[in-house]
Design a protein that fits this description.
This protein is mainly α and 596 residues long. Among the domains are: 134 residues, Farnesyl Diphosphate Synthase (Orthogonal Bundle), CATH 1.10.600.10; 163 residues, Orthogonal Bundle (Farnesyl Diphosphate Synthase), CATH 1.10.600. 69% of the residues lie in helices and 1% in strands. It is built from 29 helices and two strands. A two-stranded parallel ribbon has the order 1-2. Helix 15 packs across helix 16. The protein is globular, with a radius of gyration of 27 Å. It starts with a helix and ends with a helix.
Length: 596
Amino acid sequence: MARSITLDLQRLGPASPRGQWSLAKSRSYCQDLTRTHYENFSVLSCFVPGNLLADFRAIYAFCRWADDLGDEISSDTESLSLLNWWQDELLECFQPHGKPWHPVHVALAETIRRHNLPKEPFLDLIAAFKQDRAVKEYESVEQLEDYCTRSANPVGHLVLHLAGAFTPQRAFLSDFTCTGLQLANFWQDVARDRAIGRIYLPGDARTRHGVSINDLDSPHASGALKKLILELVSSTRSYFIRGEPLEHELPFPINRQIGLFRRGGLCILDAIEQQQGDVLTQRPTVSKRAKLMLIATAALGTGIKPLPAKLKATPHDELLRSRAWCQRVARTQAGNFFPAFRLLPRDQFEGMCALYAFMRSTDDLADDPGSAASCLENWDNALTEALNGHPTHPCHLALLDAVTRFGIDPNWLLETIDGVKQDLGAVRIGTLQELESYCYKVASVVGLCCLAIWGANTDENRSLAIPAGYALQLTNILRDIAEDHQRDRIYIPTDIMVKHGVDPKAWPTKGLAFQSLYQDMVALNKNYYLKASELTKKLPPAGAAMFRGIFGVYRALLETMARDPDASLRQRTSLKPWHKAAIIGRAWSSRWLSSG
């Protein structure tokens, strides 16, 4: 394989001459690449619809190249450089007038365009290959699961997108199968990974079984290593069982292809068990005959052995998966605030991630151009069902755990959905009282939930958290005037417009009247900030530091906007990354000083 990637780079690497690759030639290249590489299970089979074959091949070719650049290059520095090049070429596929030249990216760009694929799964995959160059060992299965959110699960998400069947719940189920496949490959490839300086066997499990590094360097597996491998194989089967319901949600024939992936993973585990856990003497593989049997059983939709009762998914297992999903959402979408979450005690960190994931999912339903009132109504009903013991969304179990653990009032969560419902369609706010009611539902209740998580849910603190929510949301409103207008949303109260001589029908229009109105709203907002500022003195250190950081960022943003009101009509105002980082850093530094 090393010679293969070396020759490929000579022909198609960053320093090679850029040839002219048509879409047809590029797809042919991807087809050849797919056919000539061994995999444990059929990447393409008779179950892939004909209209998706080229798309599956393009994605596989992208992954194959990225994998080889991450694994088959001897130098860490050179490998990272090549992965950065591969990422730059990928990003070209997402440019409106991008001109990718590599055959894989020429084919992939068309797949991305046809199916409106997001770029995040591709970037996550490259990030995983980069991680392989920096992280050589893992201490626990939980750390491996986190790695799988980048190395394996994005592939499942892309398959769902290709099938036009992506939903958060289906992605949640897909993650079980993809994580199971990745873990199965780890147990299969212990010797190969050790040869390139990597150990994926969890450190805590190795310690528990008394497996040393010398055991991994031996030509044959020791008794302790065999026991460890068989234990990991047994626990990995549960991932495939928990992912199996996805096949019942997808239409034929793509559900059979998903089933083939799952059965392929189980076949790897069977092969390891047949060798009694000795993965060093010979690498366990899936025979051609076994692959044919996989296709036959996938076609019939049968052939899965029932999971032993002791391995069935427990409520705790599902809670851990839900927490991991929420933490992934927070890590990828909460921006500068996720590092602040990280500095909270572990239970509060988990609660904040669950709360953020729920709020983010709620908000996205209103901001998605294709959303409708029925989507939020269904979301509202789903939350009610979850509170009654029937969770259906990936965030629900972690959210319910936070509600129970921290005493969060469920009505606050329901009020958030009611507030977001106001964002559907045209929005007009008549009075300041109506504006405060809206801000309470979409922002203040979030603060009330945070108080509960931080252990500061008192009557006095709640009375301060309400104006804090007003302040933060009104800052967003003043920042997003132009963007909201494009969506036919006007949050500035009509009576305040009239007071300043601003015609609501001509909103927003530059001029002295607008500037006067804007400064009036800034003054009103500063009063909210002043009322809420007392809250920092009443919170425990970790909560106070987080509140001070968020509050400081938004106050600085308000001060910046107040200096040039007309800027809000041109573009969205933001702080420089260093400025936000400095504010958050000061907030957390004060925590350590006060606690010391």
